Amino acid sequence: MNTLLKGQVAVVTGAGSGIGAAVAVALADAGATVVVNHPNVPAPAEEVVGKIKSNGGTAIALGADVSKEDEVIGMFRDIVAQFGTVDILVANAGLQRDSPFIKMSLADWQFVLNVNLTGQFLCAREATREFLRRGPDSSRSVATGKIICMSSVHQVIPWAGHCNYATSKGGIKLFMESIAQELAPHKIRVNAIGPGAIKTPINRVAWETPAAEAALRTLIPYDRVGVPEDIAKAAVWLASDESDYVTGTTLFVDGGMTLYPGFATGG
Ligand code: BGC
After folding, report:
1. What H or E segment, with its residue span, contains residue 230?
2. Care to name a GO molecular-function term for this sequence (predicted)?
């Protein structure tokens, strides 16, 4: 337990598993009160809340589908009613629906874009409205608010068979940078984290057998598959005053996956 985020309220979307769950636990360990959002599937989120409480932290689970405007507005209304305000948003909710381009259904294209990109737009907009309503309060944080967009190495690495997902992450990059530019005068910091291959349910097939993990490691110069805690540590830093001069940046936490590993020996 440290005190980097003491007295602050954080919302983590899609926090019932994987990276979101680890981020929620780490923010609470740093002293934040954490809202563990889930897409109306309470059991895993309640488990994360239980873990936070057993670590001595404060958390609640709140259901909302981030791709639905009324649900997002309702969630932020609930949070402000319960905790007074919000200081930190980690817009993490994201998913994959993979298929070859020519076989991709419109439904799979739209579903991924709706959750991964529109979900970040809706949550960031409601968080920002609350930051501006509350205004600066240096007893909470130097910045008036902090937004962390969960992106991916696939905001820069094209990904055959996953064009909906890569498009959503490429979109997050310019969404994040555009609102960072717009909100900096209001002392709202907006950044992204670009995780590489992290062991979570979303990519289980890529690491669950020794052969799959060995193949995956050929894409990672640092030669290990990441764990959710690698991302959680970066999120705590970006949410805290320790990163007060950082805005509009994507922090890749990827063991070097974005370093064109194929060129280590070729070219
Ligand atoms: C994807 C994972 C993938 C990783 C590296 C992530 O954004 O969700 O499925 O393993 O990027 O390719």
Report:
1. helix 228-239
2. glucose 1-dehydrogenase [NAD(P)+] activity
The residues pairing with 191 across neighbouring beta strands, listed in sequence order, are 148
Using CB distances shorter than 6 Å, the residues near ligand 1 are 96, 152-154, 196-197, 202-203, 206
The pair phi, psi for residue 200, each rounded to 5°, is -145, 175
Q: Could you identify the residue written with the tokens 């020794």?
A: 210
By most ligand atoms within 8 Å of CB, the mutation choice from 198, 216, 218, 230 for ligand 1 is 198
* C-alpha of residue 152 to centroid of ligand 1, in Å: 7
For the CA of 94, the nearest atom of ligand 1: 8
pLDDT digits (tens, 9 = 90+) for 68-114: 999 999 999 999 999 999 999 999 999 999 999 999 999 999 999 99
User: Taking the model in full, what pTM does it have?
Assistant: 0.98
222 is catalytic: no
Tokens of 7: 């007295």
Edge-first strand order for the sheet with 88-91 is 58-63, 33-38, 9-12, 88-91, 145-150, 188-195, 250-253
Evaluate if residue 266 carries a pLDDT over 90: no
Cα–Cα distance between 25 and 19 in angstroms, integer?
10
Confidence of residue 252 (pLDDT cuts 50, 70, 90): very high
* Residue 18 contacts residue 71 (beta carbons within 8 Å): no
pLDDT digits (tens, 9 = 90+) for 186-216: 999 999 999 999 999 999 999 999 999 999 9
**Residues 253/196, Cβ–Cβ less than 8 Å:** yes
Structure tokens at 218: 């050929």
Q: What backbone torsions phi and psi does residue 30 show, to the nearest 5 degrees? A: -90, 10
